[in-house]
Amino acid sequence: MKPQHILLLAAVLLTSGCEKVLDKTDLSAFNEEQVFNDTLLARGYVDYVYDQNLPVWPTGDFQKATDEISGETRFFEGTVQVNTVADFGTSVNATNNYGKIRSINQFLAKMPASALSEGYKKQLMGQVTFFRAYRYFDLVQLYGGVPLVLEPLGAIGEEEKEQAAIPRSSTSESIQQIVTDLNFSIENLPGKWNDSNDWGRITSGAAAGFKGRILLHYASPQFNPTDLPERWQVAYDANKQAIELLKANGFGLHQSFKDLWFTETNNPEAVWVTSYNNKVGDQINKNQTWDNNTRPSYLGTGSGSNQPTWEMAQAFPMKNGKNIEEKGSGYDPKLFYKNRDPRFDNTIAYNGATWHINGNTNYRLWTYFVNNKTVEQKATVTGFYVRKAIDPNLPTGAVANSGTDWIEMRYAEVMLNLAEAACGINKLDEAYTQLKAIRQRAGIDPGADGFYGLSPKMTRAQMFQAILHERQIELAFEGKRFWDLRRWKQFETRLNGKRRTGVTINLKTSAISPEDFAARRDGMSLDSVYRNYMEIIPKDLDTKYTIKWLPEYYFFAIPSTALTNNARLEQNIGWPSGTFDPLK
Predict the structure, then answer these.
(1) Prediction pTM value
(2) In what side-by-side order are the strands of the sheet with 534-540?
(3) CB of 496 within 8 A of CB of 485?
(4) CA 360 to CA 364: how far, in whole Å?
(5) Is the CB of residue 519 less than 8 Å from the CB of residue 493?
(6) Quick check: 242 and 211 in contact, CB under 8 A?
(7) CA-based nearest residue to 384, from 486, 454, 459, 309
(8) Structure letter (DSSP) for residue 433
(9) Beta-carbon neighbour count of residue 74 at 10 Å?
(10) Gap between the Cα atoms of 105 and 146, Å rounded
(11) What is the pLDDT of residues 427-455, one digit of tens each?
């Protein structure tokens, strides 16, 4: 059984206090003073904050608005409106950012006066300030600076409108408050929790890693268009601290890129993790949906809805570390799968691939067409499936209840964050060190020069692009690509005016009959199959539009409902009646 604290065991809301926590004690029997002066009840409140705020497996429009997977999205159609990104929230509601912040602020306001020991109080508060930082950064990366509510006021939209009508703080002030909260977490949380039942609680290293991620965003062109060197320096310092804290407490790269998702308690790569299938009483009722939504539908469950683009398949380098278009890479477009970076086979499933799935180690995936009809019951639109984090040993009947943990921050990401920040201050040797270590774990050949296919004399600009490319490969389908393209303002240069593509793989019936091929295919070498019997036909996935990302999408509009509820809010420049500059 995974640690109970990650699951919502009770909603310890002080305004109504009638739920149950941990040992199913009825909290309606307790007043505020008892809740904050009882070790288990106070911890129960913290557990509620975890459940409200822990991130989940990535889905939705932001996942589709990349070059990773197919799917229509308003961000690429160019039809985003003022109310499209409505994560601001206008009422006390556990589903929006300010509703969650209010629960956090209630705890932080009451806990200092508790009779519990100072060390224990700070440990609990350190976990909660982490999530306040998380909620505020969720807002800042969408909109820029936001109202900083640090006391449990009535939310915007309640009767206390006058009290709650707080103007937006500048983006720089918002970032500083986030950093202040995370510094408190770093100072007051352990580097590693000793009790296995505490696996998944935030550590000082996780707080430092998140601080490093945020300051890297703040140093990137979206927030730092003039390339201020001091932004890169503080990002470097933060990520250096994160690496040192994590190393000192036993964190590091998992030995296997393929298997890192299936190691749970004490996974060295899992810096920040959301655990699933936690047990409450005799019920197991918190299951992730990634596995079920991603594996091919015809395998008994799932919908096959996360389908990689041809661009994503081509982005992976070769086993020698060279990009496919580089001289000497050895890439053969007819045998696109051959001699690729091993992460390719562990991330993307393609026609003819051997895929250990449903407990079958020798399963061959066939997604080809015969006379314009797929051999699958329901074909992949792109020609590919995602296989990253798909548990190979789950039987068909267990897929819908998959409990594979979501790793929001891997140690590999912290390394990439450090590499990018080091590049920002021209410490290119340090950036090389991180990239080479990640490529070594991936299984790329070191080459005679020991650079794992990387150009050994990159400029700062070239190194930035190499790091972004490495992030695209290493962190593929982990919900990071949208934010990377956005913070580097690369949607226009990489994607605008283009259409994402997939492939249709046809069986050449002039070379072999469909019946004969179906009977023999599992015993054939894949090279022979593609050389003799298959043709690869590119096709457009974006059939309704070419991609049209607009500049104002780098800071989305404050929703009109929020503006109506709080007359002191300013709209972002670039949107109707906008006066707020999110770069200040």
Answers:
(1) 0.93
(2) 373-374, 369-370, 501-507, 534-540
(3) no
(4) 9
(5) no
(6) yes
(7) 309
(8) H
(9) 15
(10) 16
(11) 999 999 999 999 999 999 999 999 999 99
Best CA proximity match to 413, nearest among 165, 229, 243, 190 = 243
Residues 210-244 as b or e (16 or more Cβ within 10 Å = b): bbbbbbbbbbbebbbeeeeeebbebbbebbbbbbe
CA–CA distances in Å: residue 519 to residues 130, 364, 370, 383: 57, 13, 15, 22
Helices (H), 2-117: 32-37, 39-53, 61-64, 74-77, 97-110
Q: Higher pLDDT residue, 163 or 391?
A: 391
Contact 153, 160 (CB under 8 A): yes
Q: What is the amino acid identity at position 505? A: I
- The pair of three-digit structure tokens given for residue 226, joined into one six-digit string: 């003039």
Distance CA 542, CA 528 (A): 32
- Distance separating alpha carbons of residues 192 and 201, to the nearest angstrom: 9
Q: Average pLDDT, stretch 502-513?
A: 97
Strand partners, 534: 507
Copy the structure tokens of residue 70: 């197919």
Q: Which of 346, 452, 442, 423 is nearest to 392 (CA)?
A: 346
